[in-house]
Amino acid sequence: MNKKLFVLLVVLMSLSLIGLIFVQSFWISKSIDSGEEQFSSSVSEALNSVTNKITERESKNYFDRYLNAKDSIGGELKGTQLTNFFFIDRDVNSNEILLYEHGILEEDYGISSTFFDSSDGADTTIIKSYTSKRTTSIFREDIDLEGNTPRLNPIQRFEKIGGLNKMEKAAMEDVFMVYAKRVPIHKRVSKQEIELLLQRELENRGVDIAFEYGVYSNGLPTKVKSSKFKYAEANIYRSPMFVDYEGVSNFDLLISFPKKKRFLVQSILGLAMLSLLFTIIIVVAYAGAIYQLIRQKQISEIKTDFINNMTHEFKTPIATINLAVEAIRNPKIINDQEKVLRYLQMIRDENKRMHAQVENVLRISKLEKNQLDISKDRVNVHDIIEDAITHVQLIVDDRGGYIHTHLDAERCEVLANEMHFTNVIVNMLDNAIKYSEEAPKIDVFTERAKNYIIIKVQDQGAGMSKGVVKKVFEKFYREHTGDIHNVKGHGLGLSYVKKIVEDHQGEVYAESEKGKGSTFYIKLPLI
Length: 527
Description:
Its EC number is 2.7.13.3. The protein is built from twelve helices and 15 strands. By secondary structure, it is an alpha+beta fold. It has three domains: 1-68 and 81-109 and 126-143 and 151-257, no CATH class; 263-356, Orthogonal Bundle (Helix Hairpins), CATH 1.10.287.130; 374-525, Histidine kinase-like ATPase, C-terminal domain (Heat Shock Protein 90, 2-Layer Sandwich), CATH 3.30.565. The strands form four sheets. A five-stranded mixed beta sheet has the order 10-12-13-15-14, covered by helices on one side. The protein has a four-stranded antiparallel beta sheet with strand order 1-2-3-4. A hairpin with a 2-residue loop joins strand 12 (441-449) and strand 13. The protein starts with a helix and ends with a strand.
């Protein structure tokens, strides 16, 4: 994939993901705001309903007590008063006259009563009874032919006797309110009534949450409040109580919700968590996709590098074999047995070299597929190290270097495959030799750590950066040092070492610093 196209795709996908996260966050924030508005609206409705019901209950109590007091009057009538209202209308077309009469009979009693629970010490309350009488009459004016005085003949007459109408009842309620203002608030409404009404009204509106309440008079607290109520302007809902006909109230019912935020969050928690879960899945999938794209790009580059190295390493032996074959075919040389044998040996050696390369690749492939049969026996680590050193000793001597051993582990027997483990040590020594620009200076140590033996291969070569140390055991990985072929290899040696050591229930790791050499460690369990 083109690098610019790859970067463009990553940028577009990242912007889309950021936009998705922003939209989700905005939606959650708006949901909380909407929930808070709905919560406030429900609480306000509940509060208004509670205050109205308390006011209606008080007014009903006064009317009931008024009617009971009137019905229980046993004294003499002290006075009556009749108030009449008249309305007359005449229809000239039909000579009909409409007479509407509304009379209110007021009966005044003076009795001993505690009707209003007055605190001024008076023991007499004036109880008045009101009766409403409504009469509608229609008359027709008749004039006789002799010219006598006209006469009114009644045509229809309706009478209705009953109680007071709404306006008159409202006037009575106003009177009750005036008297009720003189009564202490804790006698007008109880804590139990407020709690019961608040709980019922809030539950009816879906607000099932603990609350605290208080009744305040002109901004000052009263005795009517819950035990844990605290005034806080930001979290208080209020509604006026006992409003008179002028819209004036001396009392406010206040309510607060200590767990309001938790309630609002829990109301959208399910959808928010589901949204968050899907967002996390998308982020993880996105990160995984980006990682895989980058990883595949790196693998593609590494494999290209590997093919180039393998091609380079096969090119030389193939060229050598071709030259040897051409030389043998030369009539001047074919009769020279010594030269023929030398060229045949060159062909054999180069063929073995290519065969070893192919075997190494196949061995790694089988390891990854768990198809490599590794039988383990009791072996001596020190013997394996000495045997491995003999494989590379000539190369080290040829370059003027050395390999020093410090085999100090008092116990050195492990359960391992001798051939594969020898290859492991050879690969580590070969790696130290290849990356030593000058004469190789290698030290091999062994030491015991509890029930483990630690093998340490230390060189004074080029060293590695921290980033390279993390990747050095990966398949096909090779550190580039300018010319890609200036160090022979194909990035399989240390990968093979890691696979074999892990198959022996061991660990392998490295420490290095650029320009100061590297140290490789193998940790194996002792028998």
